Amino acid sequence: MTVRLHPTAIVEGGVTIGDGTSVWDAVHIRGPGTTIGVDCIIGEKSYVAYGVTIGDRVKINAFVYICTGVTIEDGVMISAGTTFTNDRYPRATTPDLTKLRPSDPDEHTLATVVRAGTTIGARATIGPGLELGRFSMVGMAATVTRSVPALHLVIGHPARTAAAVCRCGEPFLRAVDGRLPDVADIECPACGLRYAVAADRVHELTPPRSS
């Protein structure tokens, strides 16, 4: 296998890209220190900053902005127009307005981790210093200001839990006032995987079926 690079893509030095990955038109991947795994898709006109880690089989759609400090694990989908941030209180200059602040990471730069299997909907904004749990799902245009537990679907401005969501992507338990009710055993109506919910956390009762 080989890496497929569109002729208009810019890939700087110090970037590692795994076999089978496609990088489409007008993508800019900064280096050094950026790593992209195998069988990924980096959609057109997306930007990946230096020092970003992207796992295997990740789908990144068009016009996605991924800043320094972001780690994306395997099997993640990031839909078109998603924006990541890494500074909670950014300023362009020093307080006296006489000097432009550098863009390099500093003590204010906060890391964000997107755990395996997560889906982020189109035009979502992800705040700095957060963790999106395994197989979580962020609704389109959501503004995420707090970490998202595994297998939670969050929507809105700011985003809050709307439902528990299965590995297959199907919501199976609706939240009440942003929290999931406790359930000892519940089945996904789409695929049959079973879960328990306690203290707003979703626990898998059956292993995923192999494809």
Overall description:
The protein is mostly beta strands and 211 residues long. It has a single domain (4-101, 109-179), classed as UDP N-Acetylglucosamine Acyltransferase, domain 1. It is built from no helices and 26 strands. The chain has a 10-stranded mixed β-sheet, with no helix packed on it. It has a 6-stranded parallel β-sheet with strand order 3-6-9-12-15-18, with no helix packed on it. A 4-stranded parallel β-sheet has the order 2-5-8-11, with no helix packed on it. A hairpin with a 6-residue loop joins strand 24 and strand 25 (194-198). It is globular and about 55 Å long. The mean pLDDT is 96.
Q: Name the helicity range.
A: under 10%
Q: Give the integer mean of the pLDDT values.
A: 96
CATH H-level superfamily title? Hexapeptide repeat proteins
The level-1 CATH class: Mainly Beta
β-strand percent reads: 25-35%
Order of helices and strands: EEEEEEEEEEEEEEEEEEEEEEEEEE
- End-to-end distance: 22 Å
Quaternary structure of the protein: single chain
Shape: globular
Overall number of structural domains = 1
Query: Using only CA atoms, what is the Rg?
Result: 18 Å
Q: Give me the count of strands.
A: 26
Briefly summarize what is shown:
By secondary structure, the chain is mostly beta strands. The protein has strands spanning 4-5, 10-11, 16-17, 22-23, 28-29, 35-36, 41-42, 47-48, 53-54, 59-60, 65-66, 70-72, 77-78, 83-84, 112-114, 119-120, 125-126, 131-132, 137-138, 143-144, 152-156, 159-165, 171-174, 183-187, 194-198, 201-204. It has a single domain, classed as Hexapeptide repeat proteins (UDP N-Acetylglucosamine Acyltransferase, domain 1, 3 Solenoid), CATH 2.160.10.10.
